[in-house]
Amino acid sequence: MATAMSPKRFKAELHESLLELHWRQWCALGVAGQIEPERRWVIDLEALAVSTSWLASADARLLQRTREWLALNRDWVSTPRLRRIGHAFGQTVGSDVPALERATRGRTRVTGPVVTQPVLLQLQLRALFGMDARADVFGYLLFNKSGNSSSIARALYVDQKRVYNVLERWSAAGVVRRSPSGYSLVPDAVPAAVAEARSRTEWVNWTMTYLALDRLHESLARAATDDRYILASLARDAGPELETQAAAVGVILASADRYPGAAYFEPLADGVIAWLRRLLGRRG
Amino acid sequence: MRFGSTRLDELLSALDRQLALAGNGEFAIVVCGGSALAAIGLVVRTTRDVDVLGLARTTSSGVVVERLAELPEPLASAALKVARDFNLPADWLNLGPAPQVGMGLPVGFGTRVEQRRYGSRLTVYTLAAATRFTSSCTLQSTRTATTFRTLRCSSRPEPSCLRPRVGLSRRTCPARFGKA
User: Is residue B54 left, alpha or beta, with left meaning phi > 0 and alpha meaning psi from -120 to 50?
Assistant: First the structure.
């Protein structure tokens, strides 16, 4: 029989799983580490960078490697998107980028990304389209049936006007098809290499996922208590966003309304851990 | 939604913990009505809300009730969190009977209250359970008439013997508690 999740165990598991998720993705990008690189989910570089700096106090080594990587591979980074996502997380990350170079002096434990890896589809698309919103919009439409300019801009943290212009041009060029439900990719418009990468990976909105999980992690850590009621209450603050993002990968979190007071803690904790295990590719 | 004394303890304890989490001061409140009686275990019936008469200030001559126009912001915010967490109406903690403070409270009211702490941040004052009252007072609030039918006990009762018998309604306990 499974034992009830204690607040201490939940907080520890949330913390460790989040760090592991970050390490896996950085390792896939070329950071040296002892962890198995990400193989399943398409990595979102800017979301990963911002989330890593959000978790900076938790793992100084990870932050240092991240800075080295970003300084060495800054050409792959979309600075406007980094700023937008940083703003959503409550940081001004964009201004850090020039300063990152300083961190690269001396020995480095990072290399450039091997862009042919399927999980680095975002970078493949940037190689194809250039450092432009088009790469991210194309990536979104590869994994989502359809979308309009505002829903895509919201999901990707890119400028809505820019997305609209891209979609209109692609529509005129026959790359996307417009319907009442939005724009969708014309299958023939997908290059073979990209289609191959898509078939071997899955997409998750990492910005929203990290935002929800990082906020939960931070509010639980800041509260410095193991009081189940307070932890449940803090989780309710992030509840709707947690539920939406977990559902996107097939994990249904307990509905807060069904569990008053402290009773919400255990089902929520179980659900969040199941969600993290799904993201880490573990069973149970 | 209605709640009884056990749930009321849970709610007030949750309110205390929300105040502690926010770190925004300590509050002492005076409550009356059904919630006050439920809080001290005098009645088992349920109540819909917690009627706050005002803030309590302790003086050498007893507790003085300070009238409030609205709940202090930290208390109101904490109460809203508790409302959300327990699926309660937003005004579960309200100042319904507060206007009574301006009209005057019964003589000696401040000496007949019982203190109950719910943690480090919240103290709740209610009419004392074991006090022998010889008069009744009626508090007319803007929202509802809240009647304090004081307990007419022939001798000082033990709190433990009160529980099964005591009720404010003559219907539930006609022999012992007559018309006030």
Answer: left
> Are B34 and A243 contacting, i.e. CB atoms less than 8 angstroms apart?
no
CA A227, CA A83: separation in Å to the nearest integer? 36
Per the CB < 8 A criterion, the answer to whether A78 and A119 are in contact is no
Pairwise CA distance, residues B46 & B2, whole Å: 6
C-alpha span between A185 and A170 (Å, rounded): 9
pTM: 0.80
Lowest mean pLDDT among A23-37, A210-224, A252-266, B108-122: B108-122
Backbone angles phi, psi at B129, to 5 degrees: -70, -40
Pairing mode of beta strands B50-59, B62-66:
antiparallel
Q: Complex ipTM, two decimals? A: 0.79
Cα–Cα distance for residue pair B85/A234, rounded to 1 Å: 10
Q: Is B161 helix (H, G, I), strand (E, B) or coil?
A: helix
Q: Please provide the average confidence, as pLDDT, over all residues in chain B.
A: 70
A-facing residues of B in 54-83 (CB < 8 A) are: 81
pLDDT in tens, B37-81: 565 555 556 667 888 989 999 888 888 888 889 999 999 999 999
Contact flag A233-B81 (C-beta cutoff 8 Å) = yes
Give the residue on A whose Cα is nearest the Cα of B23: A223
The CA angle A9-A34-A115, to the nearest 5 degrees, is 115
Distance CA A243, CA A252 (A): 7
Distance CA A255, CA B7 (A): 21
Say yes or no for a CB contact (<8 Å) between A260 and B87. Answer: yes
Whether B85 sits inside 8 A of A232 (CB atoms) is yes
Strand extents, DSSP E, A111-248:
176-179, 182-185
Say yes or no to pLDDT of A136 above 70.
yes
Q: What integer pLDDT is reported at residue A168 of this predicted model?
A: 96
Q: What is the pLDDT of residue A36?
A: 94
For tokens 């520890």, what's the residue? A12
Domain definitions of chain B by residue range: 5-162
